[in-house]
Amino acid sequence: MEDDKENKVETIVKIAILIWSAALLTLSYWEPPSGKKIVDFDPTFIASIFSASTASLGLSIGKKGNNNAPSQSPTIPNKDTKK
Question: Which of 18, 22, 61, 77 has a CB 3.0–4.6 Å from the CB of 81, allowing a cystine?
């Protein structure tokens, strides 16, 4: 019973951090019609908190790449290679 209560509190805290970081990220990019930003800061740290909180909840945010394309390693010429 106590473990269930702790899990609920942990989940509530994670969701609160997720909402807080999402709100700050939204405000950092949103510019109202007046032209003056509400908050002005580098959102990199908040974005990392947002990513970590989504991962802790088991969510995955990002593009799904096309894994059907063959992988090619780049060719790096050296001094012995003729062009």
Answer: 77
Tens-of-pLDDT digits for all 83 residues of the chain? 667 777 899 999 999 999 999 999 988 888 888 877 777 788 888 989 999 998 888 877 666 665 555 555 455 555 555 55
Whether residue 83 lies inside any domain: the answer is no
State the Cα–Cα distance between residues 59 and 57, nearest whole angstrom. Answer: 6
Residue 73, number of CB atoms within 10 A of its CB: 5
**Within-domain flag for 74:** no
Candidates 77, 17, 79; CA nearest to 45 is: 17
